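User:
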Amino acid sequence: MNTKQSDKRITALYARLFRDDEKDGISSSIQNQKAILEKYAKDNNLPNPRFFYDDGFSGVSFTRPAFMEIMELAEQGLVANLVVKDHSRLGRNRLVVGQLLEQDFIRLDVRYIAIMDNIDTAKGISDIVPMQDLFNEWHAKNTSDKVRRVMQSKGMSGVPLTTNPPFGYMKNPNNKDEWLVDEPAAEIVRKIFDLCVSGLGPTQIAKRLKLKKIMTPTEYWNSISRNCSKLLAVPYNWCSATVADILSKQEYCGDTVNFRSTTKSFKNKKIERPQDEWKVFPNTHPAIIEREVFELVQELRQHRRRPTKSGIVGPFSGLLYCADCGEKLYYSVTNNYKREQAYFFCSAYRKNSEVCSAHYIREKVVESFVLESMQRVLWYVQTYEKLFARRQMEDFGEKKKK
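Assistant: Predicted structure:
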């Protein structure tokens, strides 16, 4: 490394704080760590000190923005020293920390210093350091276990486990476990459900909301918190995933839904649970959407009807299945064809020609079959009205008993 490159190398002063570390008081605060790090760099004449910090990030994960920035600079040969207040600030995963100390910092020619633990790689690593890493990891595991037990008990009692309530609700200032309807946001939620019932899919709904310049959930939360620093580059940028997520939330019926996700261990990211493992507590807060409307929307979402490139949505789209392989039939109509030439074809054949054969049925043929069937049913009802009514009542009674 030449002298010019050496002059550019910095001393990275790194601080980290997680929610559980706040219990240690002001001594673990970001500002306190910064003061200690800057004094150490000044007293020891470390070159080009630059402060980095991750506030609210667990030591178990190493995908922290500031730490990743330091490592990117190190890969470019721009970091001479990495200084932390104590060794646990670097991280609480002994395997990753061990690799950093024994391989990565050596490869990148980075001197690592943990002030309070008297660790300095320039003087060699003590045999006791791996034991410190193990204790740091145990601390994270024990804390995780305690939090998991508290959340398990809280969730089983019907208290919502989400940090932030769904869009359309807000926390009661006098009781953080209670949700109140946030009327301006709730009105947007009702509009989304109404548009879905009218036959529009998430993509079409998102386009309409964007066209009418309706604020997204993020924009709305920023506006009520008056956080002007978080203005989005593209305003009113609704996406289909956001709309689909709102349409799927049972909380809008007034129910609390807990344990949607879990983790295999304190080191793993969240994984989604199957729906039969969720815990649902009905009528725990005011409903924004009527239960019948929510159930109707879920039924419609199971039979999703995507518009063709021409924007046409067939009345039978999402409802027809191939008689041979059981896969859905796709609807096809283009501007080059007349509507009478629209047809349904097997989706399995389109994806893999070996699964099924290339057969299709025209939309007008399906319409004639459905009309003929409806005419037969209506004729039966008119001709045998009393018999039909009695059978319907008997069938209703059987379902009610079941």
